[in-house]
Amino acid sequence: MELLSYEADVVVRNAYLVTMDPERRVFQSGALAVKNGRIISIGPDREIGVQFESVRTIDAAGAAVHPGFIDNHNHLCLHNMRWAYPEIPDPIHSPDPSAKSYWDICADEVEYAGSKLASLEMARNGTTCFLEAGTLTTPDAGAKAIEDVGIRGVLGDPFIFDVHEESVPVIERYPLDTQRAFNSLGSELKRNRDPDGLVRGHVNLRGMASASKDLELAAVTLAQEHGVVLNQHQSYHPNDTSSDDRLRGSHPLVYLWEIGALRQNCTFAHMNIIRDDEIDPIADSSMSVVWCPAASMLHAVGGTFHGRHAELYAQGVNVALGCDSANWTTAFDIAEQMVLAILTARDKTGQIGLLTAEDVLTMATINGAKAVGLQDEIGSLEVGKRADLVIRHDNLPEAQPGMDPIRSLVLSTRSKSIDKVMVNGEVIVDNGHSTKVDEAEVYARSRESSRWLAERWTIPPLSPRWPPIA
Ligand SMILES: [Zn+2]
User: Fold this and answer.
1) Model's pTM, two decimal places?
2) Gap from CA of 324 to ligand 1 centroid (Å)
3) Cα dihedral angle (151, 184, 94, 71), rounded to 10 degrees?
4) Where are the domains of the chain?
5) Mean pLDDT by 10-residue block, N- to C-terminus, for the chain (470 residues)?
């Protein structure tokens, strides 16, 4: 039989290929071909490998290849202050009323440096797309950092709220002003004019008892009209949940459902404090829930036991994962969130099989794509989708003996076994390092920015508990 030869830009061969397609097909020795940034063919290596002539062939040497991770909740800009300030008071919600907010001090270059560090951290940890939670003071600075590193970012309108509750930090730059809130809504949607752009926009509310009924409805409707998600923080901590209860007169998810603001395109982050009567509205609306396990546990919020993330997932709710922000998480590393999700769910419920490695990989990929509103473009390795993927290596003790590559990568190798990361068919991480930016330069700019912030802030930086000897 004569085989036809087709042209591709890149062919990835000899991969333990985890597609995350609707049938959850896995090819023991698989291959995929990429042209113009999209997957044009996928299947057994013995077929794809001989059908395509490509500019570049990547041999995965039998290691796992899977879709890039999607981080559905983070704050891109705060990396320059990671661990620079004491845990209590936390560096944003300072009890000192004279202390300026981080966002009133931050300069564009500082925001660019922090965003670049955060994007680099994500890229190296296999995250190829993330949803930013509406806290960039200069979204253009963040967008440039994301493009420079080469991952995808979906940015939100900064600080939209029209109700002031205790959980909202005072930011001079973003005053409580109903007109400002309504006028700014949808400001990042302009980025969707370029369908090939790495940086896109969604509609974002700050959330947690900070929006009126009119603003909630305007935001979700605008998002729906533009085919994007409405993202907001929701039910993070008992404090903001009690504010919401008081403001709404009922539990917040019940209230939002009753006013018609809880819809399929809603992606709410945290959702740590969920009461019995909120389960049905969440399930019936087909909304997405973003579980940030580290962000709950680090600040002793109690999401592990008050949250219902694993139970909602088991019920068919689209649960995805998020990291949150520098001082609210361990790292921008979705692999860590995956393992924390499994550990906390099993420990809480006493059910060993409640969440599997395959379940959390689903949350981190295809569910993440739905939650970010890009399920037709990313989240699985299928013909027509963007070639956003992670290529592993097996050259690690934690990868041995390699009998179950999915459990290996979720539970033991996590981010350590990442060799290459591809976005749009371009290798942006090779041998674990960025091909796009000078990493040492990114680190130097971040340290410089951190010092710049420390000089201007009225909150004194942290003195180490074990002061180092000079
Ligand atoms: Zn957040």
Assistant:
1) 0.96
2) 5
3) -20
4) 6-67+381-434, 69-372
5) 76 98 98 98 95 94 98 93 69 64 89 97 98 94 98 95 75 90 96 96 95 97 98 94 94 98 98 97 98 93 91 97 92 98 94 94 98 98 98 97 96 98 98 98 96 81 81
Cα 237 to averaged position of ligand 1 atoms, centre (Å): 11
CATH number (3.40.718.10, 2.30.40.10, 3.40.30.10, 3.40.630.30) of 6-67+381-434 reads 2.30.40.10
**Ligand 1 geometric centre to CA of 269 (Å):** 7
Distance 466 CA to ligand 1 centre (A): 30
Ligand 1 mean position, distance from CA 384 (Å) = 32
Q: How far is the CA of 18 from the centre of ligand 1 (A)?
A: 30
Ligand 1 midpoint to CA 242 (Å) = 18
Is beta strand 230-234 parallel, antiparallel or unpaired with respect to 266-270?
parallel
Instruction: Please tell me whether residue 198 adopts helix, strand or coil conformation.
Output: coil
Q: Find the helix or strand (DSSP H, E) in which 202 lies.
A: none
CA of 233 to the centre of ligand 1 (A): 6
Q: How far apart are CA 457 and CA 106, in angstroms?
A: 10
Separation of CA 222 and ligand 1 centre (Å): 22
What tokens appear for 365 in the block?
Answer: 């990929």
**How much distance in Å is there from the Cα of 295 to the middle of ligand 1?**
8
**Distance, CA 298 to ligand 1 centroid (Å)?**
13
Cα separation, 47 vs 67, whole angstroms: 21
**Do the Cβ atoms of 59 and 13 come closer than 8 Å?**
yes
Neighbours of 431 (CB within 10 A): 10
Closest alpha carbon to 140 in 191, 84, 105, 212: 191
Phi then psi dihedrals of residue 441, to 5 deg? -65, -40
Homologous superfamily (CATH) for 69-372: Metal-dependent hydrolases (3.20.20.140)
According to DSSP, the β-strands at 6-18 and 26-35 are antiparallel
Structure tokens at 198: 């790495």
